[in-house]
Amino acid sequence: MNAGARGDRRVRVTVEADAAEWLLAASDDPGRVRLQWASGTGLADLPVGPVFDLVRMCDGIGTAVIQALRRRDAAGPVMLATASHVLSFLVPPGSAAEWKGWLAGTAYARRRAVAAAGPGRVLRCPRPGCVRQGHVWLIRPGGPLTDSRTLRAALEEAIDRPGLPDVLFR
Hints:
Layout: H1 3-25, H2 30-38, E1 43-47, E2 53-58, H3 59-71, E3 78-81, E4 86-91, H4 95-103, H5 107-110, E5 114-117, E6 122-126, E7 135-139, H6 148-159
Antiparallel strand pairs: 1-6, 2-4, 2-5, 3-4, 3-7
Helix pairs in contact: 3-6
C-alpha cells in the first residue's frame, strides 16, 4: 500500500469515527449503541427528538431531494433503508411537528411518500461507514442537520422536475 492510500484510509477512518461519535452523543446510552453496532444486525436504535427529528421519504423522490439540497450546498445527514426504499433526513429537533402540520391532508401524506418522526420514535442505523441489513448512510452525520424549510423547498423543487412519477404526488 502506498503512502497516499494509507493517508486516504486514515482520513476516511477519522471521518467515520467523528460521525460515529456524533451519533453516540445523540444517545442516552452510548454503550448500548456500541454494543448494538458490534453484534446482531449491526443496527442501533437511536432516540429521535433530543438531537434530531426525521423526515422520511420514498427513495425515488428522496434522491431528487438530495440533488436539490446539494445544489444549495445544504445537504445534512441522510440514511437509506434499502429494503423499504426509504430515505431518512435528519432535521433539527422540533421540525417533525412542523412537517406533520404541513403534510396533513397533502398527497404526500395520503400516498405515504413523505412522513415526519419526532420524539418517541427511533432511528435504526448502522455505524457510519458500514452497511448493515440494507441500511447505509448516504450522507454521514457529524455536520449540520438539514434545515427543515430548506428541505421542504428542495422537495417542492424535486417534484417539479421531469421524470418523477406524477402518480405519487398529484
